[in-house]
Design goal:
alpha+beta; 2 domains; 5-stranded antiparallel β-sheet; globular
């Protein structure tokens, strides 16, 4: 198999296979035995929903969202649950390929990584995704300049680790106050921080969509990381700039703070579209309902499939009402 075939996850002779990135189960689980002795102190109970929309103008959707929620206690303790949004760059199919490759590589490499801490594992995973996207773009002239933004949130026990590249954003709503946790990697944001432009001028600048960092556009990438405590009642909003270009911070606070995640996500998409929707729109809304102690009994019953009534709730539902997770689909649990 050629380097090109490996990069796109298929046979280079079939153009249809360029549009997806292979998800390798063996690659994903290879490193997990390193974590077997661990278990989390607490687990956040999350209720979440995500939506993506092509918008009113674009003919395809270059945005992607994905998540991975392990049930094995050792993986929860070491790596937590991951939620992410990516906004592809490069036009039409190139951006779509980049964002999909980004998220699949992120999940596989992050959970497979032997790195001793989540930050190192996350950095390595983003770097590997950058390498794959960049090298694919170098091999195919039509893909030159392809890349993607990334905003990710990893819930590990009582902390959230945020990873960011580009201008997709993470917002935290706590006690009725909304805070933009991430800082855009964009020309206007850097101009504002340097005192060369006001915030008001930045919001209407014709260059507000010019980003200064992305995954895959250069041979290396430098993500930013942020850490926050997990508190019951917190609401996190991860989104592409197709939302923030039309919806204000105060509206994000009001909508996400007043509705359950599925309805909030729906209203965000509808509002951005009603105001023009000139870009793809993607939003992930995550509500922290509680923090549960993770007991040995709950671990044994939840993993081994014993009495479900004693297992820890996931996404606000008792065990007998849960949909099968991705872990369950992969391992038959």
């Amino acid at each position: 198999m050629s380097a090109y075939d490996a990069a796109v996850g298929g046979n280079g002779s079939n153009s249809e296979q360029e549009t997806t990135a292979k998800f390798d189960r063996a690659e994903l689980v290879r490193g997990w035995r390193e974590y077997e002795a661990r278990q989390p102190r607490v687990v956040p109970v999350l209720k979440y929903a995500a939506k993506t929309d092509m918008g009113q103008v674009r003919e395809n959707n270059e945005d992607k969202f994905d998540y991975y929620e392990p049930e094995h206690p050792a993986i929860l303790a070491a790596r937590g649950s991951l939620f992410a949004v990516a906004d592809g760059i490069g036009g039409a199919q190139a951006g779509q390929i980049a964002s999909e490759m980004m998220l699949k590589q992120l999940i596989a490499s992050y959970y497979d990584s032997p790195a001793p801490n989540p930050e190192n594992a996350l950095y390595d995973a983003i770097s590997q995704a950058n390498d794959r996207i960049y090298h694919l773009a170098q091999m195919i002239p039509e893909r030159n300049g392809m890349g993607t933004t990334l905003i990710g949130a990893i819930f590990i026990e009582d902390e959230v680790l945020i990873a960011q590249v580009g201008d997709s954003r993470a917002y935290l709503i706590r006690d009725g106050v909304v805070t933009q946790v991430s800082v855009d990697h964009s020309w206007v944001e850097e101009s504002v921080r340097a005192g060369l432009m006001t915030r008001e001028a930045a919001e209407t600048s014709p260059f507000r969509n010019v980003i200064t960092r992305s995954v895959g556009a250069a041979a290396s990438v430098e993500p930013d990381f942020y850490r926050e405590a997990v508190r019951p009642g917190d609401i996190w909003v991860l989104c592409s700039d197709g939302l923030t270009g039309y919806v204000s911070d105060d509206e994000i606070r009001t909508i996400a703070g007043s509705h359950p995640p599925a309805e909030a996500a729906r209203q965000f998409i509808e509002l951005a579209n009603a105001r023009g929707g000139r870009d793809n729109i993607t939003v992930f809304v995550l509500s922290v309902r509680d923090l549960f102690p993770y007991s040995n009994e709950a671990v044994a019953e939840g993993v081994a499939g014993a009495a479900p009534s004693a297992a820890i709730p996931v996404n606000g539902l008792p065990a007998q009402e849960r949909p099968r997770s991705l872990w369950g689909k992969l391992f038959g649990k």
